[in-house]
Write a structure and sequence with these properties.
This is HTH-type transcriptional regulator TrpI. The protein is of the alpha/beta class. The protein contains 10 helices and 10 strands.
Length: 296
């Protein structure tokens, strides 16, 4: 099987059609004909040996393979556009691209985004979210915000913002809420616990911090990403575990409760900036994030 990349025009046509969910709209955006986009997509499918779209009514629908390629190609073209824009406009006029996990973006960052834009308008922030493994060294990213453990790599400037504290949370809608919310932490050892594959160490770390036997934990429904895990907990499906920062708004609103509190882990929420790209905006963002985490 060939390991060469497909033609750029074919990828560009596919990315536009996948993003817009329409071959016709992709053709209009790219200023080509409908047939030209269709031919490029067919050529791409032949190159890869898989179907990327299937017909659905009068339109088209992405296959599983098409969805995977859409996610990667959309991110890649977004990075290209960002870097090209930076090269054309100069760093002082380019947006500051911040990468962070989608769960952190949705549950903590977006509710504060308007305030950030008002208080740091010169930042011109552009967000790049991912639920996969983040790479703080990737091209087109100025900084990465995530939970991580030291030691820190020598080629990164790492601004430590707040210690990570994790704890179990559940909704008053949960069927066993009345039995559990006033019970000791040990009561969770017999409970089918909601968990996520992205943080397999979370429950064992919490158990260790509460002097409980991690081997006695009983895991129930699993979720691929933390965001889905917490939505399941809020819907009353069970007891989940999460960093305190990501459930602070839900706790304040009464959507979730944390009867057993939170324990500190070796990790912290930190802003990672490649040393070679460090500029004053990174320092400004770090200071704003630190204030936001400590004051609100």
């Amino acid at each position: 099987m060939s390991q060469s990349l497909p033609p750029l025009n074919a990828l560009r046509a596919f990315e536009a059609a996948a993003r817009l969910q329409s071959v016709s709209q992709a053709a209009e955006q790219l200023n080509v004909t409908h047939g030209a986009v269709s031919r490029q997509i067919r050529a791409l499918e032949e190159h890869l040996g898989v179907a990327l779209f299937v017909k659905e009514g009068r339109g088209v629908k992405l296959t599983d393979a098409g969805s995977r390629l859409r996610d990667v190609s959309s991110e890649a073209f977004a990075r290209l556009r960002a870097v090209c824009g930076e090269l054309q406009q100069g760093q002082a006029e380019a947006p500051f691209v911040l990468a962070c996990p989608g769960s952190l973006l949705a549950r903590w960052f977006i509710p504060r985004l308007d305030r950030l834009n008002r208080e740091l308008p010169e930042l011109r922030l552009q967000l790049s979210a991912s639920e996969g493994e983040l790479d703080p060294r990737r091209a087109g990213v100025d900084a990465t915000l995530w939970f991580a453990e030291p030691p820190w790599p020598a080629d990164m400037q790492v601004f430590e913002l707040a210690a990570e504290r994790i704890g179990p949370v559940l909704s008053p809608r949960y069927a066993r809420f009345a039995e559990l919310h006033q019970a000791p932490a040990a009561a969770l050892l017999g409970e089918p616990l909601l968990h996520t594959s992205s943080r397999p160490q979370a429950w064992p770390s919490w158990a260790a911090g509460n002097a409980l036997d991690a081997e006695a934990l009983r895991l129930g429904q699993g979720f691929e990403h933390l965001y889905y895990l917490l939505e399941a907990a809020a819907a009353g499906l069970g007891v989940a575990i999460a960093p305190q920062q990501l459930v602070a708004d839900d706790l304040a609103a009464g959507r979730l409760v944390a009867p057993w509190g939170f324990v500190e882990t070796p990790a912290c929420l930190a802003l990672w900036v490649p040393a070679r790209r460090l500029d004053k905006r990174a320092q400004q963002l770090a200071e704003w994030l630190r204030r936001e985490l400590s004051e609100r």
